[in-house]
# Entry
Amino acid sequence: MVYFCEMNKTHNEHAFINGKLLQLVINSFQKHAIHCHMSTSHWGELSDNINNDSKVDFSAITVLEPKAKRKIRWVIKIVVECFNVIRVIRRAFKNGVSLVFFSSMSPFANYFTHLWVRLPRYRHIKIIITLHGELQLLRSKNVKQVDRIYAICVRKALQAKFPNRKFLVLNELIKGKLIEDKLIDPSSILEIPHPYDDKYKHAVFNKHQVQEMAFGHIGTAKLAKNSHLFFDLAKQNAESVTSGKAIFLISGQVFPDISPFHNGFVEYISSLTLIDAKKYMEQCLRMRYAVFLYLDDQYEMVSSGAMMDAIAFGIPLISIKNAYSEYLFGLCNTTPGILCESYDDMANHVQRLILNGDAHYAQYLFGIQELQAYFSFERIQDMFDSQMIRS
# Structure
């Protein structure tokens, strides 16, 4: 038996990536029953999209949703998460489970897990913990006290050495950087590319027929992504927006921290929660280009799910040059969009596209198709399987 555990997320948060991770585990451990431990709301988002689900069952656990400015609730959430870890590890020991796979964890629960499995009776249990955006805490400067504490927890967890414990990251650049900086032993880390949602490919229309010059911001919009610059980009092209020559739109939730930068030139859905999946897809399908404003000091240790969605939808990229965007463009024989030296360079490219058209658009689409092939689920499954065999 294999345990698949999500102790941290509820409802549709991380639902896509967790669905793909669960499918990888199901396919890789075909002779094993898979038992999922997660919130009922999260299971509801995953269960309808699982292939070969006859071997998968589910136990509900309590996972609290975080709420802004509710510090006591956040502490209780972490305590509950740690109790869930104890419960699952004890069950794994009792039932002789082959693997416990954690699809995400809070940094404190991650470190707590490593303290708990140091107990002699649990050391033989094989564990994989998937790491996400918390790795950026290792690079961030001028952060809040709680983030500094989280960074310490992540660092200590990475450097704890257990032969039966592995970390999974979603990009080879992140793996290389962790090893290069001596934050983790090479034998303790696994890597697969960040999957994209291949069902989006069936919804993609023929972009050659799109008349609108629509520039899109995919995913949540917040200061950590430099999303305020997207509003500035639209403002610089205000005349083109008002005349109907260009559209600037955001598909995800717009966070309050960029409210001072709002203007009437960007379309977005006002919501205090994650955007409904159908509305999110409808917004993405309107985009001719996907704009990315990340810098290395914000996203060096994060694999961008938004960029994967752009690839899934077949949307050419316009990105400021950073390690990850250079990596993506470097995978292609044909460029998948426009790689910009700076924000000013991006603004100039966008203005030229609006005024002069995009004669190279068909080439960009070929480049995106190359990325779709490189990040195909079949290829990721082969990579995952080979690492499972070696570990």
